Records
---
Amino acid sequence: MMGIGGFTPLDGFMTHSDWQGVCDGMKMANGLFWPIPITLSTDEVTAKNLNAGDDVALFDPERDEILATMKVTEKYSIDKAHECMMVYKTTEDEHPGVKMVMAQGPCNLAGPIKVLSLGGFPEEYGDQFMTPAQTRAEFEKRGWKSVAAFQTRNPMHQIGR
């Protein structure tokens, strides 16, 4: 999603200060509204062997390809239960968001990415595939001033804030 612009204006995975701000107030460190952390986690052994300034490959084993590279700017650990409670208002393992967060590695890596592949989206969706930038251009071409979107699977949400 980041590679096709689905998380615009993010250019990479969140720093600790962005993670903290999103969890505690739905705002990144720069004040931009953002409701759910966008992080890249890894195991402790991998994180131990990485330093700020290192370039890493983001590999998709299902497609057997490198999707992007990332320049590591920071590595940090988080309180997963805190993230789950603040974002999903629960720490119950049955919640799919909680399950995902709790299954992630204990260390997060932050940094900007350089996209190398669209990860199969164009092949999967054919003529219906458009990046957010392409959809915005199409809206402008058609003269549309107001556009509504509805996502039926895994919508971003927070209740009671």
---
Amino acid sequence: MRFEFYTEALDNVPKLSVDGTVDNSIHFSHWEGNRTPPEVKADTSTEIALKLAASPNRAQLTNGIELVTNNHFDTDGVLSVWTVLNGERALPYRDLLIAAAEAGDFSEYSSDDGVRVSITIQGSDQASPNNDEGSPLARLIAGEEVDDDARAYELVLPRVEHLLTNISDYESLWREGWDKVATAIESFEQGKSRVTEYSEEKISLITLAPELFDGAGFSPTRHSAPYTAISKFARGELFLIAIPTNGGWFYRIDYPYYSWAETVVRPRIEHRDLSGALRLLKDKEGNHDGQWQTDNREMTSAVKFLDAARTLAASRLEPDEVVEALRNSSARAAISVPK
């Protein structure tokens, strides 16, 4: 088996498309539109690769093709490619590989070391592929910034097994990101940040503690929400995230962070018609320097309250008012569905 980062030069070459999906290939991927063989389908591409590695039908599933490709760099991409290249040798690392892939692609907490491995490879706990920070591990190996995905694979793939077995050696790469994840999780455990579930409408109201955004120049208008902590505690199919600020609240509405992928175990999430809720929110909003609007710049984001520069603005609505608009919109949508 050999890896080559995808370019158009591979269009007509027989290949295994691992994680990303490209034409004229056998897919081992969870991306929408994949044609992965049913017997190895799973929620992450890394788990798909592990099923392939363990399968007695591996030769038939791959049709004997030796070329492995992917079209982007992130934790799940790296680990699924590495697993396919290494076959049965990857199987003893199964739990850690899956945990790291879930952390990278779904911002999920399955284990401490899973999150740490993902941060080391990907550089963020943010659901990929929205992360543009570059790979800390590639940067360490190269001794300089690496902004080329093909080169990042070239640098990182030979180091994966050492990372999996010696995660403490890479603490300088994951410590800062891990501390942010741990702090956010602790905030929920201590009741400073809270989740209120509206089970009938499957809406989770997540109210974040203001101290999560204190110090180190961290700002919710410039940085990501603590996705890993949110996904650990919220159970709804629509997340309303409320962040207190001077003069009001920052708001963003997201779908669960796995929902962009084709999943097998995790339930499929249908995107909602939020137009009715948007109308209600616009009518009630007291800050006319901002606007409630759809925002899909991130793969699972749905709605935000934004200013003219499309940055989070302070809404004057209280969280219960925003929840009520979402609940009313859901109720009206349900009534309009033909019986």
---
Amino acid sequence: MSEIKKPVHIEEEKNVVVEIEQFWSRYGKMLGYIIGGIVILIAGYLGYKSFVQEPNEKKAMEAMYHAEEYYRMDSVKLALNGDNINAGFAKIVSKYGGTKAANLASFYAGSCYLKLGDYNNAVKYLKDFSTSAQQLQARAYGLLGDAYYEQNKKEDAVGEYKKAGTLFEKDELLSPEYLFRAGYLYESMGKTKEAVEMYQAIKDKYPTSQRGADIDKYLARLGVTK
């Protein structure tokens, strides 16, 4: 009687099983550590978010309320440094770093330092701030330009003014203002071509703005006529 041959696919399945067993025998412990580590990281992140980040966000927002009140009252030092009970913007940044409130506090702190004439700290805090809200980001660029200008860092200042004037073009109040500051600064640096570019942008995009109303005289003195 001839030998009955086993189907080929059964042999292949046995080989696969053997290979899997060998793989797990060799690497099972290491993979267990890796998977365990990933689980720990995920659990740690979720725990951090639930027990640290979210409570910190709430506390930071509560502190922001009082600091913003002082800011609106133009009590700059109290807004920045806080009072005996409530934290100011600088404290919120250092204590609640990584929260949305602390990020916004960086903007406010930079603005406060600018008003107080501390331009180094104004630059420091404004550079740390970032947002997807273009109008607010444009304002931050503009304040950063002011801080650099006060430090006589004209190249840095003009770069920030240009970003401020072109980021959110729908703002017909601040955009032409910052374009003008960029143009005026370029002109003072002897960069006529760049100055004309900024002034012309005001003329083309914001003819009815306050800066647009008299921009022709600035273009004319650089040799550009109607």
---
Amino acid sequence: MSNNTLVKRKKSLNLGQYSFVLIFVALFLIYFFVNFKEGHSQLKWTGVTNVLRHSAIVGLLSYGMAMIIITGDIDLSIGAILGCVSSFGCVIANIMLNAGVPTFVGVLVTVLFCLVAGTLLGFLNGLLIGKLKLPAFIVTLATQLIFRSVAQYSSRILDAALKGSTSNTYRVSNGPIRDAMYGFGQGQVLTLPVLGLVFLII
């Protein structure tokens, strides 16, 4: 390896490349000192794992958003896609529950539905932006409103058995499918939350 290559590599290693790590450390230190009382921090391991569990969903979404931002675009509809897909995911789970299918099949179908539905909604955005050359900001602003409206309107017209609620909200009805999903979301491996581990692995 030539000296010029080494010099270039040394120049390329700057703190800006690791700003996200520094920001994470800074936020963690703030969290640590905010919990500082009576001469020592009240921060416990359960507090750390709870942060990991609750930030997993946003963290997973941020991976996709980061790739979009790197390309110089933006996606305003990501939250609406999550809301719309999860809303109808509840409907699918309730259909599976009412049909009396085995718990594993019900969970699998619900998860596959959410993955496929989220992919298709994202593909629609990509099609409008990539093929029709429409501005990403305008497209995703419009689809954000569309996806949110579809979920909200459907909550008013769907049967309560499908929504799992008599109000204009969605939930998975009490049963083995809900218990399995809740168990996964609240599960732990060696005191680490399963959701946090999925986030870190991905």
